[in-house]
Specification:
The chain has 17 helices and seven strands. It is α+β, with helices and mostly antiparallel strands and 369 residues long. It has two domains: 21-166, no CATH class; 195-369, no CATH class. The strands form two sheets. Strands 1-2-3-7-4 form a five-stranded mixed beta sheet. Strands 5-6 form a two-stranded antiparallel sheet. Helix 7 (167-191) crosses helix 10 (229-244). The longest helix is centred in the C-terminal third of the chain and has 29 residues, at 340-368. The protein is globular and about 60 Å long.
């Protein structure tokens, strides 16, 4: 019976695009991060304290801390875990991965008043292309040792009082980042290519073009990042980990849980992107800050749109020089790049299509759980 249940779980995971190869390492890394947070707290290490302003809340006391788990420490924890299975690990041999964790603690009310989820975790998976390889140990065991993980945790005081409450969110976010590492590993094994190709370019572009005085254009760039398929693929295992920690008996239960996930937020942002609204916001003058920034912002945006194809080409060139495998990208027509309204309308259609794709992935989650 247990074997049949396990086989069913694997079939469901694979049908949803969740490789069974990431399950074990995700669970162990979640144990590792949680245990280090417990350790940090139990050692009564002094936290840095500052006063910060929180939207809709006002001044709040923020306590901060951080720690680094070395490559050797993470591997020792992995191989000594009760969950470690050498045969399973060889399917995806992550090896000696450093992990950096930083965290901020705020009053619980600061989250509810500001509209932030409590807790919120931002994460990244980093790798160096100059060291990107699949190596071997002395006994010919294959290893993949290029990944570094970073996690920034924003938690309420009640989360810090009971670190166990962080586990579901830590688990889901680690699943997302481990999946990115798995994507890179499988692509390299099959093709010897590094990175995500065209989507690497748009990912870099969304960071490269951000500017402090242009929040409206930054919103567009953020939605561009949310439209990337390699991000959509990673949202699935992240969301599945959350669903597995919830009691879901019917569709209403499913929707209550799903609406709290990043996957749902991404769908809403993609589907609701409006070129008309963006242009209207760029023209709107409501504050003294708007008076100071809206003029320069409009000129900046027009220049960036006009130069869009050139910037894309430069990012492709930089990506190739850094060791990523990226083919040339066909540029947009001059009719689009010469007219901001047509430019944003073009991307509006693109974002809505990607939002539809992500929504179809979401519906499959309920059908197969």
């Amino acid at each position: 019976m247990l074997k049949n249940q396990k086989t069913k779980k694997i079939r469901i995971n694979e049908a949803l695009g969740v490789p069974s190869e990431i399950d074990m390492i995700t669970s162990i890394f979640a144990d590792l991060v949680k245990s280090k947070l417990f350790e940090y707290k139990n050692e009564n290490k002094e936290l840095e304290t500052n006063t910060v302003e929180v939207k809709n809340y006002g001044d709040a006391e923020k306590k901060s801390g951080s720690f680094r788990i070395t490559a050797e420490e993470s591997w020792d924890f992995v191989k000594n875990s009760d969950k470690f299975n050498p045969q399973e690990w060889r399917k995806f041999p992550l090896y000696k991965n450093p992990i950096l964790v930083s965290f901020d603690i705020l009053p619980d009310d600061a989250f509810s008043e500001s509209g932030m989820d409590m807790p919120t975790i931002n994460a990244s998976h980093k790798f160096g292309t100059d060291e990107f390889k699949v190596g071997k140990l002395s006994d010919d065991t294959e290893i993949f040792d290029v990944s570094m993980f970073e996690f920034m945790i924003y938690m309420g005081e009640s989360n810090w009082d009971n670190v166990e409450t962080l586990r579901p969110k830590i688990d889901s976010v680690i699943s997302h980042e481990v999946f990115h590492a798995f994507q890179l590993y499988t692509k390299y094994i099959k093709s010897k290519k590094i990175g995500f190709g065209k989507e690497n370019v748009y990912n870099s572009l969304s960071n490269l073009l951000k500017t402090e005085f242009s929040p409206d254009f930054n919103k567009f760039l953020h939605v561009l990042y949310l439209s990337l398929r390699f991000e959509h693929q990673a949202r699935v295992p992240q969301t599945v980990r959350i669903l597995k920690n919830e009691k879901i008996d019917n569709y209403n239960d499913f929707m209550v849980v799903i609406k709290k996930t990043d996957m749902w937020d991404d769908i809403i942002k993609l589907k609701s992107f409006s070129a008309d609204k963006l242009i209207e916001d760029m023209d709107k003058i409501e504050t003294f800050f708007d008076i100071m920034t809206k003029g320069p912002q409009k000129n900046f945006v027009k220049e960036r749109i006009f130069d869009w194809n050139d910037v894309v080409d430069r990012v492709v060139e930089m990506s190739n020089k850094s060791g990523l495998n990226v083919e040339p990208i066909r540029g947009l027509s001059s009719k689009i790049t010469n007219d901001p309204e047509k430019f944003f309308k073009y991307w509006e259609k693109y974002f809505h299509r990607r939002g539809d794709e992500l929504f179809r992935k979401l519906t499959r989650l309920y059908g197969l759980l």
